[in-house]
Structures are given as C-alpha cells and as structure tokens.
Design a protein that fits this description.
Radius of gyration: 15 Å
Structural class: alpha/beta
Largest sheet: 5 strands, mixed
Strand order of the largest sheet: 2-1-3-4-5
Order of helices and strands: HEHEHHHEEEH
Strand content: 15-25%
Shape: globular
CATH topology: Maf protein
Number of strands: 5
Distance between the termini: 43 Å
CATH architecture: Alpha-Beta Complex
Helix content: 40-55%
C-alpha cells in the first residue's frame, strides 16, 4: 500500500475516533484540551473538524518552541534543561498545564521528533512522548516509537491517532470525578 493510501486510511480512522469523542464525551459531561508540539495542532484540528465539537473541545495549545511550552503551559525551565523537550517529564508538565489553564476534564499532550531531521541517537526521529490527564488526577506519560523511516506526515498522523485513542481510553477509565490536577 502506498504512503498516500495509508495516510488517507489513517485520517479516515482519526475522523471516526474524533466522532466517537464528540458522541461520547457530552454524556460524561467532559471537555477536552490539547497541548501539542510535534503535531502542531493536528489533534485539535481532528476534533474540531467534526460538527458538534464545541460541546466537548475547550481549547488547544500549540507550543512548538520551548518558550511557548513555558509561557502557555507553565513547563519549567529546569525540566527542559534537565530532560529536553522530548521527554516524559515535559509531556507530563504540558498535559497538566493544559488542564490547569483550561476548563478541560481530559487533556492530551505530545512532544516529539517528527523528522525528517532533528533526531539524535538518544532521541531519534519517530520518538514521541504523549501525556494524558483525566479526572481523579489520572496522569501518565507514554513513549511512542514510530518507524524512523516514515515520513513526517506519517509520524504526525500516527501520533494524532494514538492521542485520540488514548483520550477515548482514558475517558472510559476515569469518567466521573471532577478533580483538579496536582502540580508536577
């Protein structure tokens, strides 16, 4: 299968996932926020492409630079210096910042190396950290490793898919509590 066909299929699947969020989250009384670096707003775009998204989508933060991560989400300079932007620690601070600076019950963050350049042996192209936070202070960071030979578009599309799937999964686990996230 060509990359174009694979991307088209992945985008169609993401549209179905976003529709599932639009259909499910109002019944949970839940709102969503996103904090995105390597996807540049594509997760928010996938959700807001669907009619009715205003019932579930509060806001999205596109924080491509370290300064934006600090200014918009409260990511600490010490965290960036110690671990780098592509890390579990930064993904966690990003997702908690998104929840604190929004009305969202659920948030997802992504920070990674989409390529084709910019990778290193420690942080290769295809490495993405995803933060997830939901009610009851259920917060986690997950490492995603995509094929470094994939195109930038493919890595970003796979990351959008993973983020939408994670939001749905977390909503099914953590629905019901309206707790505010703790500081990192």
């Amino acid at each position: 299968m060509s990359e174009t066909a694979t991307l088209d299929g992945m985008r169609a699947y993401c549209r179905r996932l976003a529709q599932q969020i639009i259909d499910t989250f109002p019944g949970l009384g839940a709102m969503v926020a996103t904090a995105e670096s390597c996807t540049g707003g594509l997760i928010a775009g996938a959700i807001t492409d669907i009619a009715g998204s205003s019932a579930v989508f509060d806001r999205g933060f596109v924080t491509y630079s370290n300064e934006a991560k600090q200014d918009m989400l409260g990511v600490r300079d010490t965290t960036l210096e110690a671990f780098g932007a592509v890390s579990a620690q930064v993904a966690t601070e990003m997702v908690l910042g998104a929840r604190r600076r929004s009305r969202a019950d659920f948030a997802v963050s992504v920070t990674g190396v989409a390529g084709p350049g910019g990778g290193s042996p420690q942080k290769p192209v295809g490495l993405v950290w995803m933060g997830l936070s939901g009610p009851g202070d259920l917060t986690s960071a997950v490492e995603l490793r995509w094929d470094p030979e994939w195109s930038r578009d493919m890595i970003r599309a796979a990351t959008v898919r993973a983020a939408l799937e994670a939001l749905i999964g977390r909503a099914m686990l953590g629905a019901g509590s309206q707790d505010t996230p703790a500081s990192p």
